[in-house]
Amino acid sequence: MVSCLDDIATVVQSSTVTGVNIAQKVGTEDGEVLVPQSAWRSFLKPFFRMMLGIKKYHFRFDTARSGMVFRKQYSDSEEEMFALLRDDTCLPPADRPQPIRPPGLTARGSSTFMKRFESIVRLLRWI
Question: Could you tell me which PANTHER family the record lists for this protein (predicted)?
Fold first, then answer.
């Protein structure tokens, strides 16, 4: 039966014969944060423009064109230049934003996750 994070980690670790799946928890059940999170979006928003549809592009950068990204949708598409910086005279601070406490799942989100995960666990037990 899978009923806690350690059980999930055990299922992941034992899901392959060669041990290539390695579970990495980002937090504990008692709320300890193992992998700190930061509010990067709000930290970077004043300095950078959002690129809509970012997943559909291939990118390259050029050190001679700081703050610019060259993008194209397909290998044979024409390349476009996109200005990432809102203002190239105003760069973000070198410091990281302060860590934030992850909000965790809502009761509904937790229930949905467990229902989906239980079906995966059942499948893994048959393999």
Answer: INTEGRASE CATALYTIC DOMAIN-CONTAINING PROTEIN
